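To whoever is covering the structure queue this week,

Two jobs came back overnight. Logging them here so there's a record in the thread.

Job A:
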Amino acid sequence: MSNTPIVVTLRLTPSDPKAFESFLTEILPDTRKARGCRFNNTYTGSNPGEFLLIQEWDSAEDQQAYMAWRESTGVLQKFLGHLAKPAEVQVWTANAA
């Protein structure tokens, strides 16, 4: 296991912001309990139809295992179905500076 955390940042534009926010409220407790999840925070911007999800994981493997689990349960497809445009995903790693 890597001891370098990864941060996954998703910029999202849902087709129905209120329904999407309810969906997140339903699923994020399980995300926060997933193996290796250090935190998972959500934000809305000045445009109320945009969301920012920031997750930090112990390792890329933990995050990938979580995504595979979400895909196997059908939640990932439901998540993607809420979006008006594709998620912008950025994976960050810590540096020594």
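Job B:
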Amino acid sequence: MVFTNWPATMKNNAYIVFGFLALVWGMTFLFNKTASTLITPTQIATVRVFMGFLPVLAVAVIGRKLKWRHLRYAHHFIAMSVLAGSLYYFSFAKGIQLLPSSLAGMLSGAIPMISFVTAAIFLRDEPINRRSMLGLMFGFAGVAMIARPWDASISAHDLAGFGYVGLGSLCVGLSFVYARKFLSPLGISPLALCTYQLGIASLTLLVTTDFTGATAIFDNGWIALGLFFGLGLFGTGIAYLCYYYVVEKLGAVKAASATYIPPIIAVLTGSLILGETVRLLDLVAMAAIMTGVVVMQSGRPRKANRNSIPSRSPELCPATNR
């Protein structure tokens, strides 16, 4: 009887992990914001990448996924470490420092749309139809409602924050394209790819980051725990491992739907814990973004859904989206 129910039990476990994954990704905005009150965005990115790298490296070594022959593709790993590693994490850390974490979380919901657009431009194998275009219109209208570039009261400080979040989102979209074009044909384990990506990004940031004043993070034990464990270990490294467990048990499309939940969690934590003001228009904008993503992805034919890039691509580290 136990073995008869085993598949159902594993699937139920996958949904539990799915919920944990969405929660962890959503909480990263809170941990990033609180850390930014004590240390610089570059220091935050360095700690996050390095702590996220440790569990991924451990599992990759235990699973014997790393091969010496992979060194011949080091130039691709370096490119990915910038697009989906050091530059991405810095951009979002800087954007979250400048903006309320709730707004940054809302804007992150547009990442699947940016990924779709970059794939359509550079790969030209993403189906573009009326439903996809309608979804993009909804989504980018939501982004515009949050950014409000026409509003003279929007400060240069806020615009810079929007710009950094936009840069980080663009990095993710380009990383999907790069992974599809150059890494997918190599047949290297996704776990190995993510290990190389985070490892090189960790080394780059450790060498280039100015750690002056970084010990200030320990002035508040809870903020330090949030950075090292909430944002780094769990929000980046263990989140990757959870994501691939969900992909294996539920499929990539269902796993990618975990991206719909973090913006909501970011709004809740930002307003309830940090006391950030969330306007009704912002909530409408977030709803428009999420509706746009759902409509856009539903416009893909079934064949495209199996082969096209989901909002988190199995070819690269999924934690790079948060």
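Note for Job B: Residues 1-6, 304-315 have pLDDT under 50 and may be disordered.

Please reply-all if you pick these up so we don't duplicate work.
Q.
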